[in-house]
Amino acid sequence: MMAHRACRFLGLILACSILANCGDSRASDADAPILGVPGMIRIPEVRTGYVNILPDEVKAKLDAREDFEIIDVRSPLQYQAGHVPTAVSMPLATLPWAMNGLARDKETVVYCQIGLASVSACTILVAGGFRDVRNMVGGISAWPYGIATGNALTVSV
Questions:
Q1: Where is pLDDT greater, at 141 or 33?
Q2: Sign of CA dihedral 88, 93, 98, 102
Q3: What kind and span of H or E run contains 114?
Q4: Cα-flanking dihedrals φ and ψ of residue 31, to 5°?
Q5: Strand partners of residue 69
Q6: How do residues 49-80 score in pLDDT, each as one tens digit?
Q7: CA–CA separation, 12 vs 34, rounded Å?
């Protein structure tokens, strides 16, 4: 319990130190210091640049046969019960490892049940170097079109 509190405290200190330097054009996020630790520790820059996309827009891309990835980050059982056609099952818990099998320069649309877990997934993908990440607003619950069922392609580690 004490270790958990210490980790949360250090995380807050890190976040505050990064935010404190956000207006300083000379300091980059990659060189943000961690308070209480001697010297500078290099922190990799993390972009949070993903955009939201509506189910109608995803459907239009599918109908136009555009070349993009659709990732379902729900559990395999939820995926089997019903998913967006052509979507790949990549549960959120395995995403940091499984994403290595995806093209980082290809448009990637992510969805979950209602749109919350997919936000985390988008953040993970952007941090992993993906350039064009989109979060389907409302998840599969907002998908008013036909769904596929059963096992298709499931990526796990």
A1: 141
A2: positive
A3: none
A4: -115, 20
A5: 108
A6: 899 999 999 999 999 999 999 999 999 999 99
A7: 10
Question: How far is the C-alpha of 109 from the C-alpha of 118, rounded, in Å?
Answer: 9
Measured CA angle at 106 (ends 104, 111), to 5 deg: 90
| 136 DSSP 8-state letter | E
93-103 pLDDT per residue, tens? 999 999 999 99
With beta carbons less than 8 A apart as the criterion, state whether 121 and 88 touch.
no
34 Cβ neighbours under 8 A, 6+ residues apart: 10, 13, 14, 17, 41, 43
Write down the pTM of the prediction: 0.67
CB atoms within 10 A of CB 105: 10
Q: Token pair for residue 76?
A: 């395999």
d(CA 96, CA 33): 26
Domains and CATH numbers, the chain: 1-45 (no CATH), 51-142 (3.40.250.10)
* 97 touches 90 (CB < 8 A): no
Across the beta sheet with 108-111, what order do the strands follow? Answer: 51-53, 133-136, 108-111, 69-72, 88-89
